[in-house]
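Bit of a strange request maybe. I'm writing a small parser for structure token strings and I need a real example to test against, not something I typed by hand. Could someone generate the tokens for this chain?
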Amino acid sequence: MKRVSKLIIYGLVIVSIAIAIITTSIFPLSSWATANNGTTQTETTSPKRLNITVNVTEPDDLKVSEGERIEKGEIIADRERERTRLTAQQKQLQLSLDRLKAASITPPAAPQAVPPTMALPPISYLEQEAAVEKTKSAIASIESELELKQQEISYLKGVKNLDPIILEHEQAKLKQLKLSHTTAVREYQLAMGKMQTAKSDRSYKEYQASINTARRVEEQNQARLNYQRQLAEYEQRVTDREFQVTQLQEKLNNVDNAIATLAVIKSPYSGTVRRIKWLGQSADGTLTAQVTLMVESDREAERIRRREQRNSLSQQQ
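Reply from user aminoacidic:
Good idea to test on real output. This should exercise your parser:
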């Protein structure tokens, strides 16, 4: 009977231990939740088994392998190449943005006001007119003398027994008067020519002044049109630069956000990687993997670390 009782008690102890092991396996010490980046879990106490879901760009971003033991805080996944690529792109975008902001766009200079043209001074033809009138008077006076001299010669020709020398003398005077008349006519024509030349010169100067005025007005209008065109080009260049700055800033913000999402995934506990399961690939090309970590207790982890330290010292010796 005593032997039977001992067997019954021993069986009850074994059943109790089995129930405790099954309970621990089915119900972890606490529940866990995936963080916002879908990579780590937060727990209040250490579970026996922990599934960690990570998103990587390529398989090499996963820094652990099945059967590997890792310490608390050791890196599980790190997208190093993606971070390097995005950092280089970030620097290039920032450099382009700084250069674009530093580039100066000079506005066009406004056209200067065209100074007014001076009007031609008033002109007088009194001198020329006086010369014309003087020659006309001289001609009239000589013509009167010619007429009187011709009458006198006609009278002398009718006088009987007149000394021929007197008649010759008067005819010589008549000839001299005719020469004076011819000279006076030429002087009149010259005075008239000078007055006409002066009037023609004045007309030409007025014509040239009108052409210069029209040319200056045309140049002023052309300068105004050129300024408006250059101003429109300047405003377009400013608008284009603002648009480019906005685009570059948006791209830079996207790269900054992308870099910010590339978190380094570290193990929250010490343990052994039991399994790595690839779950698939998302639309953006990233790979999703599930790392199953068998968590060690703090005492067990400390014991393993001491053993590893002793082994390391033994190898060094």
